[in-house]
Amino acid sequence: MAESTGGTGATERVADVLLLFTDGPPTLGVSRVSRELDLSKAVVHRILQSLTSRNLIAYDPASREYRLGPAAAALGSRALRDSDLRTAALPFLADLRDRLHETVTISAKVHGGRVYLDQVVGTHEITMSVELGRRFPLHAGSSGKCMLAHSARDEVDRLLADELTALTPATPTDPDALRAELVRIRERGYAASAGERQGDAGSVAVPVFGPGGLVGAVSVCGPRFRVTEEFVAATAPELIEAADRITARLGGTAPARAVPTPTGRTP
């Protein structure tokens, strides 16, 4: 089993156990955690007991499984409230929603994927909404793909060397085809998706940068029957302009792109 004995290794194991609860089912047992992280059950049990004592994890005696506790919820709420990316993006999300009438989201890149930080839901009777705080893979959906396109080469190589899980029949799972798409995304400045993460949804997304580089992505999403190729082509320049303004607020630098952006709009 891959169990380091050093202090850093112990800290990483605790973090990995806690992060496992951000994906998949709402409750997990010792055996499932042990299997997912390749840790002994004894180690997992000790970690879960420690997290439970701090209310980061809660134990359900009926199911003998664990779920995120109230302290984890408090940490998540504080992280969202204090997120510089979310704060910088919110005025632009509202402006885009008012003009495009579709749901607009802001995502942050995290270890092993990305999470939605916030959304402004569209005005149509039939609209899309996203799950905040849940980690999603980078290879599925426009937000993830535009982040992946601007990630370090060694990170892209590691991801493409592993099996790419199909979330829907449309999820990209061919490494060579995805690598070629990432090149196109970098060139044009945006990514598009048709049913890759959620079967009935379409989206277009643009990356956002901070002083240290890539931090997240802003996207517009809606039902696939409305997010057509024509919608993507018309929306991409406006989304690029918004992403560049968010980047400027964060003190980052946007990359050069082939797609022209409109001017003169300030939310």
From TrEMBL:
Signal peptide: none annotated. Gene3D superfamilies: 3.30.450.40, Winged helix-like DNA-binding domain superfamily/Winged helix DNA-binding domain. Residues 71-252 form the IclR-ED domain. InterPro entries: GAF-like_dom_sf (IPR029016), HTH_MetabolicPath_Reg (IPR050707), Tscrpt_reg_IclR_C (IPR014757), Tscrpt_reg_IclR_N (IPR005471), WH-like_DNA-bd_sf (IPR036388), WH_DNA-bd_sf (IPR036390). Coiled coil: none annotated. Keywords: DNA-binding, Transcription, Transcription regulation. Residues 8-70 form the HTH iclR-type domain. It comes from the Bacteria. This is IclR family transcriptional regulator. It comes from Saccharopolyspora cebuensis.
